[in-house]
Amino acid sequence: MANFTTHFSVAAAGGALVGGLGWQAGLWPFVDVFPVAGLVALGGVVPDIDADQSRAVRLIFTLMAMLAVIGCVSALQPFLSLAELSGVGVGAYLFVRYPMSTLFKRFSVHRGIWHSLLAAVLAALVVAAVSYHLFVQTAIQSWIFAGAMLIGVLIHLLLDEIYSIDIEGRRLKRSFGTAFKLYDYGTPQTALLMGVVMLSMTPWLPPYMALQDIGNRVWALWS
């Protein structure tokens, strides 16, 4: 399978390409090129969140901890003093970065459910909800950012499958088919749990009409 550097480098290049082409096509303004490119690059390492000692785990849980700080401070700002908010922020960061990270690694399996199309959709929905509510982006921007995350994760899964092909030996490695799959067929209960999480997120997602607007923009490029 591809390593962290390969995943990140390819996804970063893909992100720059997607961000630039989307801007040139008029799908989003220049200011959105950078978050689009960054989210594609981040998506390129997200599936390796299930690898116990990978840099992806540390990177992603650090980002999640930072988001937890922003969310907690924003929600509690009207009710707490500056000193109390500081304590809450530090506590939120440490809790997500360490206990939650350790717990996640304890129950996750590498190349399990997080190396699947279902997980790719979940990651995209999380980005859509966070962009819309926490960072107060428009519905269209939020869905565009979600699409960027989805593209990044798909790049990761495809790279893993490509690295499972032994061209010189003209054979498929045992790891072939373990990345680009609908869900983890060995543990269907994880797919059910992920489906429940996705359904529970429905009230927090941006308006779906924005997806139609984005679709119309893309369709207009080919008509």
TrEMBL record:
Q: Which GO terms describe its molecular function?
A: hydrolase activity
Q: Which Pfam families match?
A: YdjM
Going by the entry's taxonomy, the superkingdom of the source organism is recorded as Bacteria
Its keywords, alphabetically, are:
Hydrolase, Membrane, Transmembrane, Transmembrane helix
> Which residue ranges traverse the bilayer?
27-47, 59-76, 112-134, 140-159, 180-201
Q: Write down what this protein is called.
A: LexA-binding, inner membrane-associated putative hydrolase
Native source species: Kushneria indalinina DSM 14324
